[in-house]
Write a structure and sequence with these properties.
alpha/beta; Rossmann fold; 5-stranded parallel beta sheet; about 30% strand
């Protein structure tokens, strides 16, 4: 069983239906399978297969998506590269990932020429758009190979993706994700995002969550509509005009949608699932999104190392026809699958009872095999078969999992443990606040003091004292920020996560933080 079986199932049930659409480009299932097989057969003819790696550097792009599938169908591991990365990050990914083949978009040509001489293992370059100098164009290259199924058997335990993590710690690790992990993740999605005839708008990068979430769609014979980037107005128009049924966006992008003055002017009745994940979502903004988009919000919790840990379906956002209370909405969902186990552990790796706070740990088929060429990091993360997520949380009395924060983001002030997430929830309850980050900064008396860094919504204002007073009223003086800084735009990773490490650096220069 391989990831590409999902496409082949879609072609079996809907061969002439639209598989991938981007602007004027349209691929039916029959055409997409044929292109995937040509790419795979081309790679096999070059001597590639299992235990070899190939990369794709591209924006959201139909042929780039076909190349990712062709790589996996040949038995090779797919190395996704986010088009928003710096050139040096792309070099590191190709170098550390031992990529021997690179498919890339023409706009990256100068970047590729700059680093190809520094990558002796990189033997074949293929441009997605058209031939460039001595570089073959994809369609010319693959036309020489048959469109029949390659004679390659792919074990479920073979690596499908070699994925660079989306964390914000600055560590460079690549997770080896076996094909069986995506089998589990697709089963997880079928429960989380029930949608029998999906038309999915892929506005987030297909090199990350957008790609993994696409497999549910193609397995059902649905349609993927690719968008170059999640421009708020373009997303809102596409939902209405293209009758989108499902969509995934990180919370930061949903906030930008909600900030649009005409957000209520569009028809969202086609939507069945608006999935949000990748970071905690403000409860206040979640309530607003439910009011604007309807009862379609669906939360997922997972990470690169463990695909699909918990989820909350659209129905679970309501109780007896009313929007659920904050105690439910602030959770990230219940454990997702019967063949995945999620527990809370203490620092001695002992499983804690319901209600106790500790590290979220998971085991099951959706867990990575380990970090590529990094046995030390693997041993620190996978202990006795349990994947240690680095997230701190607890299960409530209903069985919902709550995430307090990342272990490394814990603030210790005057001997008290303070988790930033609940403070951020209180701060984003202000209509004027678009987003915020709470960090610990050096303090001579308390060790660390709580600081809020706030990004305001366009045209809105709120003062630091007002923010501090509201948090103090809700959470008490220990958790109330001792200072508030305002910033035009919070630093974010290429995938939209706020880079608290970058915020902390300016305050901790010349000092050592123990966490």
């Amino acid at each position: 069983m391989a990831v590409t079986d999902f496409l082949e199932r879609g072609a079996l049930i809907n061969p002439d239906g639209l598989c991938v659409v981007m602007g004027e480009k349209r691929y039916t299932y029959r055409q997409m399978v044929g292109l995937m097989n040509r790419i795979a057969n081309g790679l096999v003819s070059l001597g590639y297969g299992l235990n070899r790696n190939a990369a794709v550097l591209s924006d959201n792009h139909p042929e780039g998506y076909a190349c990712s599938l062709g790589i996996m169908r040949s038995g090779m591991a797919y190395v996704p590269m986010d088009f928003r990365n710096s050139a040096e990050d792309n070099f590191r990914i190709l170098d550390w990932g031992d990529a021997e083949v690179l498919f890339y978009g023409s706009r990256f040509h100068d970047q590729v020429l700059d680093f190809r001489d520094r990558l002796p293992k990189l033997q074949h370059l293929i441009c997605l758009d058209h031939p460039l100098e001595d570089i073959s164009g994809l369609m010319d290259w693959c036309s020489a190979f048959p469109d029949g199924s390659p004679k390659v058997e792919i074990p479920a335990g073979a690596t499908s993706w070699l994925q660079t993590g989306s964390g914000t710690s600055g560590d460079f690790k690549m997770a080896m994700i076996p094909h069986r992990a995506y089998h589990s993740f697709t089963a997880y999605q079928s429960i989380w995002l029930a949608d029998p005839q999906p038309v999915m708008l892929v506005a987030a990068p297909i090199t990350h969550a957008g790609g993994g979430l696409s497999y549910r769609v193609i397995a059902a014979g649905g349609t993927l509509i690719l968008m170059e980037k999640p421009d708020p107005q373009a997303v809102l128009k596409a939902i209405e005009e293209l009758r989108i049924t499902s969509l995934f966006l990180p919370p930061t992008v949903i906030y930008r949608l909600l900030d649009q003055p005409n957000v209520r002017d569009f028809d969202y009745r086609s939507l069945r699932c608006l999935a949000y994940s990748a970071a905690p979502m403000s409860v206040e903004k979640l309530r607003l999104a439910l009011d604007v988009f309807g009862p379609v919000l669906a939360q997922g919790y997972g990470q690169t190392e463990a695909l699909g840990i918990a989820h909350m379906t659209p129905e679970e956002h309501f109780i007896d026809g009313q929007v659920a209370p904050d105690s439910r909405l602030s959770a990230c969902g219940r454990p997702a699958l019967p063949f995945c186990r999620t527990v809370i552990m203490n620092d001695e790796n002992e499983i804690l009872p319901q209600g106790a706070t500790g590290e979220i740990c998971v085991r099951g088929d959706q867990v990575m095999a380990g970090y590529y060429k990094n046995p030390y990091a693997t041993r620190k993360t996978i202990i006795d078969g349990w994947c240690h997520t680095g997230d701190v949380g607890f299960f409530d009395e209903e069985g919902y999992l709550h995430i307090n924060d990342r272990k490394k983001d814990l603030i210790i002030t005057g001997g008290f443990n303070v988790y930033p997430t609940e403070i951020e929830q209180a701060i984003t309850s202000f209509e004027a606040v678009s987003d915020c980050a709470v960090i610990g900064v050096p303090d001579e008396n308390w060790g660390e003091a709580v600081k809020a860094v706030v990004e305001l919504a366009p045209g809105k204002t709120v003062t630091g004292p007002e923010i501090m007073a509201r948090v103090k009223e809700r959470l008490g003086s220990v958790k109330a920020p001792k200072s508030v800084d305002f910033i035009t735009e919070l630093p974010r990773s290429a995938r939209g996560k706020v880079l608290k490490r970058a915020l902390r650096e300016r305050y901790w220069q010349g000092k050592t933080r123990k966490i």
